[in-house]
Amino acid sequence: xxxxxxxxxxxxxxxxxxxxxxxxxxxxxxxxxxxxxxxxxxxxxxxxxxxxxxxxxxxxxxxxxxxxxxxxxxxxxxxxxxxxxxxxxxxxxxxxxxxxxxxxxxxxxxxxxxxxxxxxxxxxxxxxxxxxxxxxxxxxxxxxxxxxxxxxxxxxx
Length: 157
Known about the structure:
With 157 residues, the protein is an alpha+beta fold. Helices cover 41% and strands 15% of the residues.
C-alpha cells in the first residue's frame, strides 16, 4: 500500500513547527516545499513531512536570533506593530531594505491595518542593530537564512 503525503494549512504548519510564516511561503515559492491549493479556496496547504524536515534542519543550526544579545535588547518591543514606512523612517533604513527583510522572513509581519502591513518592532529593531553595526551597504550579506547575523569568512594571507 502506498503512503500518501499529508498536507496541512501553511499557517498551521508554521505554528506547529515553529517556523516563520513568511519564510515558509518563501520556501514554497522557491519550490523547496511542496504545496497546493484546494479548488475554491485561497488557503495554501504544505507537505507536513517536508515542513517537519525543514524545521529540524533549521533547529540543528544552533542559536536562534531571539536568543542573541542584540535581539534581547529589543525584546520589550516584541509583538508591537509598526508600519514598514514608519519603521524605515524611525530606524533610518531604506524602505526597500525593510521590505526585503520582511519578504525574506527576517522581520515578521504581525498584522494588517487597512492597507498597511504591520511588522514586529522587535524584529526590525534587531535587524537595525545588525545593519548599523555592520555599516550596512549595498551588496553586503547581513543575515543567514535563519535571521542570525552573517559572519563572512576572513581571508587568510
